[in-house]
Structures are given as C-alpha cells and as structure tokens.
Amino acid sequence: MCPLGQEMDGQALLAIDAHGRVYSLDHTGDWYLGSDIDHAIGALVTGTRPSRLTAPGPA
User: Fold this and answer.
1) Band of pLDDT at residue 59, cut at 50, 70 and 90
2) How many domains does the chain have?
C-alpha cells in the first residue's frame, strides 16, 4: 500500500496497492473504491457508495 492522496480535507486517506486497486481509509473503516485509478475517480466523482472492507466498530 502506498498513499495516493486524501479526500474531504484530510478526513480520509486514499491508498493504492501493488495491483492498482484504490482504497479510502478513514475513522469509520476501510473502503474499496475501485480496481484501478479510473474506477476510483469515477466512484468519487459520481458519489457511488464504496464497498466496506472492515466491519463497523461497536456503537
């Protein structure tokens, strides 16, 4: 994993893995944005709900 940038004024870190998959990491969990940078940007621009990779914490 390598940092790619951030979204929403630093509230989430964008990361990319060795296969080009893009993730968003924030205080609510880890999110899968897309299989490559093009899909990830599309998801961010259109507001498509990403897939959660981690279970939500206790309430």
Assistant:
1) low
2) 1
